[in-house]
Amino acid sequence: MLEQVLPKPHGLHARVQEAMRYATFAGGKRLRPFLVLNSAKLFDVDPAQAARVGAAIEVLHTYSLVHDDLPCMDDDDLRRGRPTTHIAYDEMTAVLAGDALLTLAFEILAEPATHASAEVRSALVLRLAQAGGHNGMIGGQMIDMQAAQSTFGIEEVKLLQRLKTGQLFEFSCEAGAILGQASAEDRQRLRDYAHDMGLVFQITDDLLDVTSTAEKTGKAVGKDQDQGKATLVSLMGIDGARAEAEKLARRAAATLAPYGNAAPELAELPMFLLDRES
Amino acid sequence: MLEQVLPKPHGLHARVQEAMRYATFAGGKRLRPFLVLNSAKLFDVDPAQAARVGAAIEVLHTYSLVHDDLPCMDDDDLRRGRPTTHIAYDEMTAVLAGDALLTLAFEILAEPATHASAEVRSALVLRLAQAGGHNGMIGGQMIDMQAAQSTFGIEEVKLLQRLKTGQLFEFSCEAGAILGQASAEDRQRLRDYAHDMGLVFQITDDLLDVTSTAEKTGKAVGKDQDQGKATLVSLMGIDGARAEAEKLARRAAATLAPYGNAAPELAELPMFLLDRES
After folding, report:
1. pTM to 2 decimal places
2. Which domain holds residue A65?
């Protein structure tokens, strides 16, 4: 689906389209499209429509990585073992490619192919804009950039994570319910699941940062500690954080109980994350 | 309306919201909201709805200025006589504030307050994403960034302008017709008008860059020439470019003839631009 929604480079502006593709086709776990596809299964959604929404979220996630890697942000030269977009191209092209990916996410959602109902398309656009905007992902990024100079407690770190990564996870799961024109209760349930699953994701990510090696994770480790940033692991200790993640993983699976075994991958994901090595 | 749609700074991420406001409330001609409001008059649209769409376009236009001013792009320290956003704050905050303004534009359009019909809201989102995306404004910006190293002819410069500034003008005018649920013919007519008006805007801008002083325009002049960028004025000469602008201004006004005197400000705008001094 990503191949279908990304532009073919053409014309005098081909360079920005090439950079959009370079940033997007870089591997990655595709966790957010996975969440959309599997939450959509609960509500009998056409998988092609779910794939389009998954592609929109992945494209938006990719823009956030391109901009986060810029010299004025995290200043990363490598991502997933390849030069970051501003290294492979240049900073100017990376800024523009990120802007274009963000814009493309909304274009995909608003196209009639995403859903026959314009109410559904509008709701998807609205929720993605909220999840990705100043009170969502970007707000979380702003807090994160100030984290090294701050003394955050557990509540502040949870808020940071909920905004920076959690909101997009919540939208990814809620999107299946929106596509299926499910009830407000269903939408809330999927958001609750995503909230807990997102914290499990984050805690296990922080645990890997402390306990793993760069070889296993494919990226630099010990970075938060080096930058003096508080994490749930530094605040709760390795054992405390692991216990919290296990509790959240159980609660996330229980949240999906009303759907029986309709989307086993979704129910198993939090437990799977507890064992991840990368 | 801008005051209503921009967030009030709050919480740990207040800084990015402050920067969004700083960039937006910096004066400016508000030409794009003017185009929406006046094209909406042709189709009996609720002015409050037109104002919301105008605000969305202005917010998107503002993001493009914030990112264009970055050191890796045009590297401008001043805009409208004030420090640019990355000078007043820092580069990181400027990147994030631009991203947040872009996202906010789509949030505004998708909110039910913009129009009762979700079909209309979806159409607005889709057209703004196309106009502002890789085949629109961002594509034009990409071409512009390569212009100093290229030998563009009249067709290339017209394409650059049509993408970089023209597409957003076209959407601003078409938006009135979309809000009024007008015919495809009306939508095309408004785009045709905007196409010609946009070129008049650009040619007169280029003429000011050559013939005016920084005192009158409030910004640096002679910049295109210094950078070795071709413009319609450098390619057609001052007299040739002025004659072209006059021809386009007459054609733009004639395009609106079917609407009689329903939106005189729109019909007069191209002629008004011919006489502008800033």
Report:
1. 0.96
2. 12-274
- pLDDT over 90 (residue B277): no
Percent of chain B scored above 70 by pLDDT?
95
**Would you say residue B2 lies in a domain?**
no
- Could you tell me the end-to-end alpha-carbon distance of chain A, in angstroms, rounded to an integer? 25
Does the CB of A221 have a partner CB in chain B at under 8 Å? no
Whole-angstrom Cα distance, residue B201 to residue B276? 9
Closest residue by Cα to residue A181 from A259, A230, A122 = A122
Give the residue-averaged pLDDT of A199-221. 78
Say yes or no for a CB contact (<8 Å) between A160 and B111.
Answer: no
Task: Please spell the DSSP secondary structure of B17-48, one letter per residue.
Answer: HHHHHHHHSS----HHHHHHHHHHHTTT--HH
> Is A7 among the domain residues?
no
A217 to chain B, minimum CA–CA distance in Å?
27
- Check residues A220 and A138 and name the one with the higher pLDDT: A138
Paired tokens of B22? 């700083």
Q: How far is A196 from chain B (nearest CA, A)?
A: 22
Place of tokens 């656009």: A125
Q: Please check whether residue B1 lies inside any domain of the structure.
A: no
| Residue A98 neighbours by CB under 8 Å, 6+ apart | A23, A63, A64, A66, A67, A85, B99
| Cβ-defined contact of B134 to A17 (cutoff 8 Å) | yes
Are the CB atoms for A30 and A50 separated by under 8 Å?
no
Place of tokens 């503002």: B62
Q: Which of A118, A115, A120 is nearest to A52 (CA)?
A: A115
Residues of A in contact with B132 (CB under 8 A): 103
Cβ atoms of A64 and A141 closer than 8 Å = yes
Neighbours of B226 (CB within 10 A): 11
* Chain B residue nearest residue A152, CA to CA: B12
Q: Say what the pLDDT of residue B28 is.
A: 84
- Residue B162 maps to which CATH number? 1.10.600.10
Residue written as token pair 């505004």 = B108
Q: How far apart are alpha carbons B174 and A133 in whole angstroms?
A: 26
Written as one string, the DSSP assignment of A177-216 is HHHTT--HHHHHHHHHHHHHHHHHHHHHHHHHHHHS-HHH
Task: Tell me if residue B82 falls in helix, strand or coil.
Answer: strand
Asked, for residue A4, whether it belongs to a domain, the answer is: no
How far apart, in whole angstroms, are the C-alpha atoms of residue A16 and residue B109?
26
Residues whose CB is less than 8 angstroms from the CB of residue B264 and which lie 6 or more positions away in sequence, other chains included? none
Identify any residues that bridge with B78 across adjacent strands, giving them in sequence order: B83
pLDDT at B221: 58
CA distance A52 to A27: 18
Count of domains observed in chain B? 1
Q: How far apart are CA A126 and CA A106, in angstroms?
A: 9
- Give the containing element (helix H, strand E) for B79: strand B78-79
Confidence of residue A216 (pLDDT cuts 50, 70, 90): low
Residue identified by tokens 């057209």 is: B127
Nearest to B270 by CA among B174, B163, B170, B198: B198
Among B13, B70, B103, beta carbon nearest to A129: B103
Collapse the DSSP code of A82 into the 3-class scheme (helix H, G, I; strand E, B; otherwise coil) and give the result.
strand
- Structure tokens given for A106: 């909304």
What ipTM is given for this predicted complex? 0.95
